[in-house]
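Running low. Invent one:
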Amino acid sequence: MNPVKVFSGIALIVLGLMLYSLSQIPADNVEFAGIIMIGPFPILVGNSAGLMVAILLIAAMLVILTLSARW
């Protein structure tokens, strides 16, 4: 029995239980934002202007990091 696989399995079970318990909390006004990086090109999604600005800054840093790693 590989201890790394056992630990990974237990960690995934705990993560799943935590996500399930968080999904049971009622939420009336949910704001979200996300970033999808395809190569150096970011795709931003979200419904909150404030979060979109924060994600835009993170996306800009990721693009700069990606392009600087290629040099």
Q: What stands out?
A: The chain has two helices and two strands. The helical segments are 3-23, 49-69.
